[in-house]
Amino acid sequence: GENVEQHPSTLSVQEGDSAVIKCTYSDSASNYFPWYKQELGKGPQLIIDIRSNVGEKKDQRIAVTLNKTAKHFSLHITETQPEDSAVYFCAATGEGGNNRLAFGKGNQVVVIP
Amino acid sequence: NAGVMQNPRHLVRRRGQEARLRCSPMKGHSHVYWYRQLPEEGLKFMVYLQKENIIDESGMPKERFSAEFPKEGPSILRIQQVVRGDSAAYFCASSPGGSSTEAFFGQGTRLTVV
Questions:
Q1: Cis peptide before B25 (omega within 30 of 0)
Q2: Which residue has the higher pLDDT, A95 or A110?
Q3: Would the CB atoms of A94 and B45 count as touching at under 8 Å?
Q4: Which residues of chain B are within 8 Å of residue A43 when distances are taken between CB atoms?
Q5: Which end of chain B has the smaller Cβ count within 10 Å, N or C?
Q6: pLDDT bracket for residue A94 (50, 70, 90)
Q7: Count of CB contacts below 8 A, A vs B?
Q8: A5 CB burial (10 A radius; 0-12, 13-18, 19+)
Q9: What residues are paired with A34 via a beta bridge?
Q10: What count of Cα atoms within 13 Å lies in the side-chain half-sphere of residue A38?
Q11: With bands split at pLDDT 50, 70 and 90, how would you rate the model's confidence at A97?
Q12: Contacts of residue A32 in chain B, CB cutoff 8 Å?
């Protein structure tokens, strides 16, 4: 099945700086890659996603890039703010076309004021 | 438009008891997914259901776990004879289905087995 890995596991950044989280996936048939933000005690919140026919997508301070050849995709957060502190999960569609998601283990992002 | 609703938010069960977790999808969504999250881990797929049908249960343990999504009412994840290892956060997600792949999660049920 699909295997998704995230690096680094923890990332600390100064407020105002950029944060980048990278994920790799194993299944070349995967075609949908969402990113979720999870705050303590809450459910994952979909923040941005990208499909395999697109190389980059941007939404205000958040962007995602996809490299299908290398099978990796990255989340970019610019001008970080304290409220960006959370755990971020990447995911990819699994096999079989049933839209089930294979998740990475998550990145703890800490924005230092 | 309410989001995905899960209840209870917290559930404590003694070993050997049954746990029932409920999930009401977003309005207009007919696809439900259950995931389990252990501390400091990512979410692991358990089961995918549509109304009255189990589509994929490849992530469900073979024993003690079952899920349903009846024609009327919420989806239910049922764990019989719970053990300490079942302690985790259980999340439900829903999607409209069809060509749409976006999945939206509920706040989860945190199960503690004592």
A1: no
A2: A110
A3: yes
A4: 4, 6, 91, 105-108
A5: N
A6: low
A7: 59
A8: middle
A9: A49
A10: 30
A11: low
A12: 101
> Residue A17 has what pLDDT?
97
**Nearest CA to CA, how far is B93 from chain A (Å)?**
9
Asked if A99's CB is within 8 angstroms of B95's CB, the reply is yes
Cα A28 from Cα A13, distance rounded (Å):
32
Q: How far apart are the first and last CA of chain A?
A: 40
B25 in contact with chain A, both atoms CB, cutoff 8 A: no
The tens digit of pLDDT for each residue in A45-87 reads 999 999 988 899 999 999 999 999 999 999 999 999 999 999 9
Q: For A82, phi and psi rounded to 5 degrees? A: -55, -35
